[in-house]
Specification:
mainly beta, 11 strands, 55% strand
């Protein structure tokens, strides 16, 4: 499964961006998809994820500002980021957690290539 990300860029504090991530390839059962953020010198942190059933998770720093949604027909997720702050700056990676076939003996985790988000005046 290949993840195709888009939507990063440079935005001023208080602005908004929308990230998208499409999972291309064969997925028998999707467990969840989501976004993780990494800045130099820090571990990659989970920003927001959404399960196949629509249950969402948000990191404490983004609650109330970010919204994750999913287009189940196309295995595509979106991250609407509002009221951005410089602390949101980083490389955002899309992740998919899934079973590739009906045997369900192997559970896979794929990462996208990352998209840069920079919040600066």
């Amino acid at each position: 499964v290949q993840l195709v990300e888009s939507g990063g860029g440079l935005v001023q504090p208080g602005g908004s961006l929308r990230l998208s991530c499409a999972a291309l390839g064969s997925i028998y059962m999707l467990v969840d998809m989501g976004w993780y953020r990494q800045v130099p010198g820090k571990e990659r942190e989970r920003v927001a994820t959404i399960t196949d059933g629509g249950r969402t998770y948000y990191g404490d720093s983004v609650k109330g500002r970010f919204t994750i949604t999913r287009d189940g027909d196309n295995n595509t997720i979106y991250l609407q980021m509002n009221n951005l702050t410089p602390e949101d700056t980083g490389v955002y990676y899309c992740n998919v957690d899934y079973y590739p076939d009906y045997v369900m003996e192997e559970r896979l985790y794929n990462w996208g290539q990352g998209t840069q988000v920079t919040v600066s005046s």
